[in-house]
Every structure is written in structure tokens, then in C-alpha cells.
Amino acid sequence: MKLRKYILPRCVGDYLAFLFIIGMLPFGYWFEVFLVFPTMYPASSLWYIIHIIISTFLLVNITSNFVYMVLMDTSIQGEVMPSTLISPTWKFCDICETVTPPRSWHCNICNICILKRDHHCQFAGCCIGHQNQRYFLYFLAYLALATIYTLYFNTFFILQYTKFNYLSVLKFTFPLAIFLLGVDYSVEHCYTLFYVINLLGMVSAVFLLYYHGYSISRGLVMYEKSHNIYDYDSGSFKENILQVLGDRWYLTWISPFIDSKLPNDGINWVKCNSKVK
Fold first, then answer.
1. Pairwise CA distance, residues 28 & 24, whole Å
2. Mind giving me the DSSP string for 248-261?
């Protein structure tokens, strides 16, 4: 396992997104366990305990996959590269001043070439590539599950404090603006603000999970998808998934701590299909 030497975000936008996600995760857990669930189930009841267990499982998997995603170094740093271009698919990076393998691209924010680079994730403050794509995928999957799960309970919770009129519509439409302008500082409006964040988070997580899940199932990274390049699509859903989840793919959903060896080193790629669709 190769870890990143510098794990903090490198630009203001990444810092803000990074701080938002690491702040919202524990707050969301606290909100559900200590505010929402007690209004629906008696303390220490069986269902209360079950939902605490479910919430804890979701939180642990979201945070642990996020940590692995941030810590894992998926760049070319430390990798031994040839001194010459060994095939047309290899490139020379003028910034890194080295030959780089197929499917690697330079990130101007991380300031280094990334193996099998998919994209730069603002919330993680790093690029998603060969070594950490598995953790990114499960981070999205568990985040989508968690936001759907909490939105269900938060809907019943928020209905206890909401009287529907023209003002409540404005509060749901512009919750942050109303809070910042000092129109409503009440606890009930804070509940509304968190509910809207929960809703937007669910929509975003589900959309991103679908988008990236589909790309992974076709053996694509974002550059290849946008340019209709299917050179590394094996044609098999399972084989494409193995490229990201590894040989123990059937266990990886349990925890990021489960080792699952990838079938490729991220450097040497063999084209499966040279036809551009």
C-alpha cells in the first residue's frame, strides 16, 4: 500500500468541500441518533437499537472508505518508468518530466500524473485513479444509501415542525439565504436547512453513483467516456468490475479494510477492444 505524502487539499475550493464533508458526516449521525430516532422510538427499544446499528454501519463505511480514498497514493510517484516511449499509447509529461503509461493524465491541482486517472474529487482533495477508485465507488454507494435512509426519517421528523404556507415554501426553497439574512434563526429552521442539505446530498450521491458506476461497468474513465474510447472495455461486466474491486470483489462491500488484489498494476494495459464506438 502506497500512501500519499501530502493529504491536505491544495486549493481553497477543495478545502471548503473537504471541511464540509468531514463536518457533515458526524453531525448527520448525531442528528439522527440523538434527535430524530428518539422522537419515533422509545429509548433502548429494539427498533431504536436496530437503527443505531444501521446508522453506525453506514457511518463507519462512509468515513473509512473516504479515509482510504484520501490516503491512497495513485500517482506515478515512486513508480519505475521506461526512459523511452515503448508504444504509441505511452506519453511524455513535460511537467513531471517523465514517460507516463496509458490511461494516465496529469492533474494540475495535484501537480502530478495519476495512474488510470478518472477525475479530481473536490471533496477528497485528490484525484481518483487506479488505486483508490474502489474506495470512491463505495463511498458514493454508502453515501447514497445513508442519505436515502435518513431522508425517509427526516421527512416525518420535519413534518412535526412545519406549518405549510407561503413562508414555509420560501424556507424550503432558500433555507441558507433565509438563515444568513437573519430572517429566521429558529431551531426549526435549522432542521429545515439540514433537511434540504440531506435532500440535495441524496440527489447528488445517487446521480454520481449511477454515472461512475456505469462508467466502471464499461471499463471506462471519464476521459475515455467523453471521447468514446472503449479500448479497455473487456465486454464483460464482471471483468470490468474486477479491474476496480479486485479478486475479492464479493467481500469488498463489507469494509475497505478487506484486501482485494487488483488484476492490473495501473501501468501496463492491454487493449481489449481497439474499436472506437
1. 6
2. TTTTTTT-TTS---
**Where would I find the H helices in the chain?**
12-31, 46-71, 133-159, 166-173, 175-180, 187-217, 222-226, 237-245
What is the C-alpha separation between 268 and 277, in angstroms, rounded? Answer: 23
- C-alpha 239/C-alpha 219 separation (Å) is 9
**Rounded distance, CA 170 to CA 178, Å?**
8
Helix (H) or strand (E) holding 132: none
CA separation for the pair 67, 61 (Å, rounded): 10
Q: Alpha carbon 22 to chain centroid distance? A: 12
pLDDT by position in tens, the chain (length 277): 789 988 999 999 999 999 999 999 999 999 999 999 999 999 889 999 999 999 999 999 999 999 999 999 999 998 888 888 888 889 999 999 999 999 999 999 999 999 999 999 999 999 999 999 999 999 999 999 999 999 999 999 988 877 666 566 666 666 666 666 666 667 777 888 899 899 999 999 999 999 999 999 999 999 999 999 999 999 999 999 999 999 999 999 999 999 999 999 999 998 886 444 4
Please report where in the chains the cell 464506438 appears, as a residue. 277
* Pairwise CA distance, residues 273 & 277, whole Å: 10
If 0-12 CB within 10 Å is exposed, 13-18 middle and 19+ buried, where does residue 214 land? exposed
Rounded CA-CA distance 144/212 in Å is 13
β-bridge pairing 105-107 and 112-114? antiparallel
At residue 264, φ and ψ (nearest 5 deg) are -130, 150
| Surface-to-core class of residue 1, CB atoms within 10 Å of its CB (0-12 exposed, 13-18 middle, 19+ buried) | exposed
